[in-house]
Amino acid sequence: MDGRRRRGGSPDFSDGNSDGIAHSRSVILATIHAYYKEVLAALPLDDLPELAPLLVVAGVCFGFADPTTNIIANTLFFLPPDHGAKKRKTKAAPSAVAARSSSETRAIAGRSLEGLVTFLTSYFRNLPTWDALRYLRLANADLLVAVRLIELDRCCYDTRDERFQISSYAVRAALTCAASSARQPNIDGLIAASFSVASHLEFVTQTVLADHRICVPGGLTISLRSVLLDKIHAKYIKAISRLPMQDVRARYHRALVNGGYCYGPFSCVTNIIVNTLWYDSAFPVVEKLEVDMICTSTFVRVESLSLRGLIKLLLTCIPEISEHDAMIYLLKNNLKARKAIEMAGVEGWESSWDVSAYKAAADASFHPELEAYVQFSTQSLPKVQAAVKSLLRASTPLSSNDVLQLATLLPSSNCIFAKSLETIVDLCTDALDMFIAFKEKFVTQQSFFRRKIEAALRKKVLSKFTSFLFLGYLYGLQVICVANERVGSQMNFLDFKCPYSHVNFLASPRVGSGLKLFFAEFSNDDDDDVSFCCTVSRKLKHGTRIMHPAHPIENYCGGDMDFTEMAHGTHELTNARIISGGKWAGNRVGMCGDDYIYFDPTRDAKFAQCMNRTASRAKISWSDILRVNTS
C-alpha cells in the first residue's frame, strides 16, 4: 500500500545466533577503537605523557556524554592533583605512546563494551545481551543514544516514572554495575566523572527526538512481551485495589484468575473489573472459599492469557500486521486495543472493528466459558455499556454497594451453556486425597505468609532515604497479591526449599483510608524472624511479577549486591538465566497446580480426568519402576 509507514517491521532474529553476536561485537569494537584513536590524537600526550597509562586503565567510553567526551572525562578524573608540577619531569617516547595506543587500547575498548552491555541489561528488564549489542551497534556505541532507542522501542515515554532520568537510583545502580564489569579501578570516581558531564543528556535527547528518520529494526519479541506483561500486571494490581478488599477475599479472587481478562470495550482496568464481576455472577462458586492470598500461578496465567487475547484481537482487526507489530501498537497505546487499531489505520494498514474479534481473543486466551463470554461481550454488554462506563468513570475505590449495582447491570441469565451439561467425572479415592492435601497445603502456606507479613509490618523499618517508620499497628494486611517462595539458592540437592520468599501485598492504614502496595522479604524458616517490608510504586522495577523497591532500603536477595556480583561474574545467576526464568514464568497457558483450589466437579471434567491420571501415576513406587525397567 502506498504511503504505509512502518515503525519496525517483523523481528530480525539473525543477531541472536553466535555469528550475529560475534558480528555485532566486531562492528561495535571497531567503532569504539575509532573513538580512542580520535581521543589519542586530541590529547596533549607530549605535554602530559601520564595521560596515556591513565587512559588505558580508566578511560572507558561509557557515561552520560558522547563516547569521546566520556573517555576524556574518565581519564582526566584520575589525574593526581599535583600533575602540573610533575608534567615536565617525565616524558614518554613517541614510539612508546604509539605502541600503547595500538595494543592497550584494544583492552580498554573491550572493557568499555562490557560496561555498555552491562549498563543496558541492568537498567532494562529482560533485555538479552544480543539485543543490547544490536542497540549499541545502531547507536554507534553511544550509551545515551542506545538508551533512547530502547525507550522508543518500548514506548517508555508515557510518564515521568518510565523515562530515563540520570538522577534516579536505577541509573546510578546500572552505572555501578557497568563500572564493575569493566573492571574500573575506582568505581566512585567513574560515577563522579559521569555525573559531572550529565548536562550533555539534554542535547543528545533533543537530537534523537528531532531526527524522525531514526528507525530501529524489529527487536526481540520476548523482550517486548515482557514489557507488556509488566504493564498488564500493573493494571491488574490497580483493578484489585479498586475492588472492596473483603469481597476480593471472599469471592472475587476466583473470578479474577478464571475469567477476569483485560480485553473488552473499556480500559484494561475497567475490563478486568467488568469481566470479573460478570464471571462471578454468571458462574457462581460451588463451595465458598475465603482467602488471604490470590494464587500466584493462576494470577500469572490470566495475565499471560490476557496478552495472548489482546494480540489476537489486533491480528484479527488488522490482518496484515505481524505479532511483533501488534505488540508495538499495544505498547504505543498503553494496551488500549481500539486506539491501537485506529493508529494502525492512520498509518496505512487496512483495519476494521468486528465483534468477531472478541471471539478470536477469547479463543486465543483459552477462556473457560468461551460461548458465554462471546454472547456477553457482543450482545448483552453493548446494551448496558454506557451505564457501566458511567459507574466506573472515576478511578476511586468501589464500595460493596457500587459493586452490587454494577453486577446487577451485567446480565448473567442464559449463560449456562453446554459445558455445564458435561458428564461429571468423579474423583477416584487417591485423587480426592490429593485434592484435600493440596487444599490443606494452600491454607497452610497462606497462613505462613500472613504471619510473616504481619511480623514484618510490626517490625520497625528505618529507611535511610525516607526516615519513615512502618509499624504493624499502623497498617493492616488486606490481600496478598503475588508470592514467590523460591528466592535464593536451593538449600541442597534433595531439599527444594529456598531460603527466602518475596511477596507483594495490599495493606490499608488502620486510621484513615487508602491502600498501599508493599514489598516484603522474609525467611522461609519458621523460627527465623529476619524480614522487612516497604511500600513500592506500581510503576517501578519488577522481578518475576513481583514489584521490588527502587531504593536500597535493605540489601534484599536479588537486590543491588546481587546485580553487582553478576557484573563481576561472581554470581551464579546470569542475565540469560533471569530472562529464561521470566519467560517460563510469564508464558503459562495450561492447567497449573493451583487449579485444584477452584475445582468445580460440575464444570471441570477435564481437570478431574487430569487429577485421576496424576493420582494413578503417583501410586507407582520407585521399586515398581525399577522392576519394570529391569524385567
From TrEMBL:
Pfam families: DUF3615, PIR2-like_helical
Domain DUF3615: 474-540
InterPro entries linked to this entry: DUF3615, PIR2-like_helical
Chain ranges of the PIR2-like helical domain: 31-151, 230-344
Protein name: Uncharacterized protein
